Amino acid sequence: MSNLNRNAPGWNTVFSWIDSLSARKTRRDYEEAFSLFWNWALENRLKNDPSITEPTPDALIRHRLVELKKEAPERFHCEDIVEAYHRTLLDRGLSDGSARRYIAVIRSFYKHATRNGGLDLRIKFKKIRVQQKYVPSLDDIRKVRLQCNPILWSLVATMKDSGLGPDQVSHIKRGQIEKLDGGFWYVTGQRQKTGETFSTFLGPDATKAIEAAYGTITPSIEGRAPVFLNEYKKLFTSSAITQRVQRAIKAAGFKPIERGDQTESFSTYSFRIFFNSALETARVPENWRKRAMGHALGDVQGAYSHPAITELLRTYRDAYKFLSIEIPAQQGMSPEDVADMMHIFATKDKAAFAKFIEAHGDEHPISKLLKRQISASEVEKPARKPKVGDVDRITEAEATNHLNHGWKLLSVMPSGQLLVQYVGENP
CA distances (Å), 18 to each of 108, 178, 299, 319, in order? Predict the structure, then answer.
């Protein structure tokens, strides 16, 4: 933890910089990283250094400003200090990526305190891959759904319906919920990371999942009770939610996608991107999207943007078709059809898929959905009565069955397969 003291003289530059950072977690992490750097500098580089009049950050910045006035110095003192700190981090066993993050904190301090470009370092960092978040489709979320138990699905559905992250979801209390018509809930609160307020909604996917896992929610009676508890009736932590969701994503078959120097990964944060993208597709105003996700609106917009809940709900209802994984009833899908579909998704049962296609046809909505979800290599085509003259390639193991049912051998192919032709079965 940081040992920095706000009341100590000579630290105005540090806390002015810390206070300029928007996110609470970022402020805490940067303060701790700077504390580690400063303790090292006092013990190794600034101790008895005649260039620094007093061992405080303010004095170091005054020294830096004097350095910048020099026209052509051989080497700046402040750069030497930070480069030496980088070598120390590597000597302590930190990876290049971790050391890069510590140095980024120090550069941020210098840049803010001197109001210029910061430091001109000679550090050669390794090339890093750009990490991008994968944006899931509704079909992707349906795949994840199949890997979730009721509690986990209630968490996933809440994140994709509301735009909230694991940290916000883990802190939701029942008193923060206002039940509205049609299975929609209005949820308000404050982001733990930034301190910004949020006002968002949960649609029927999430509300049904929550009450299926935890029973009927009564906000007026159980206001202080948390919404989400694990199987042991304990509170979820943000990291526990993340770990569970990542296991479900992996079990659903999603892996990082390499695109040149970029890597796309499906993570819990992807649900926030999915939510924002869905609302953007539905042309929901940017201010409303920011309010739902707990992003800062700015002093002016925050002061003058106060839309009525009824208008927000109407807009959210219109956009929900881009968020919901449920199949609309008007598409002619009975509960039995949906049950068959979920069975085929979960088991990849080729015979069940072939039977469904044969019974309902290629144009049935579920048939189309299943074809998109199950690759051709996993699907067994429905049996079709061959016509006289049909030619097929078969394996040696299939030969006996074919030759006894109206097929004749034409030739043996170089691959070892047999080329056969249907001549009709004897009556």
Answer: 10, 37, 20, 39
Mean of pLDDT values over 295-316? 79
Alpha-helical runs (H) found in 265-408: 269-281, 286-293, 299-304, 309-319, 335-347, 350-360, 365-373, 396-403
β-pair type (197-202, 407-412)? unpaired
**At how many degrees (to 10) do helices 335-347 and 350-360 cross?**
150
Asked if 217 contacts 174 with a C-beta cutoff of 8 angstroms, the reply is: yes
Q: In the structure, what pLDDT confidence band is assigned to residue 250 with cuts at 50, 70 and 90?
A: very high
- What is the rounded distance in angstroms from the CA atom of residue 186 to the CA atom of residue 206? 12
- Compute the distance between CA of residue 144 and CA of residue 156 in angstroms, rounded to an integer: 9
Joined together, the tokens standing for residue 27 give 């402020």
| Residue 272 neighbours by CB distance under 10 Å | 21
In the numeric block, the tokens 């078959």 are attached to: 253
First-to-last alpha carbon distance for the chain, in angstroms, is 88
User: Residue range 93-100: average pLDDT?
Assistant: 88
pTM of this prediction?
0.60
Domains defined along the chain, listed by start: 12-128 (no CATH), 138-322 (1.10.443.10), 329-378 (no CATH), 391-422 (no CATH)
Q: H/E element holding 177?
A: strand 177-179
Asked if residues 130 and 262 have their Cβ atoms less than 8 Å apart, the reply is yes
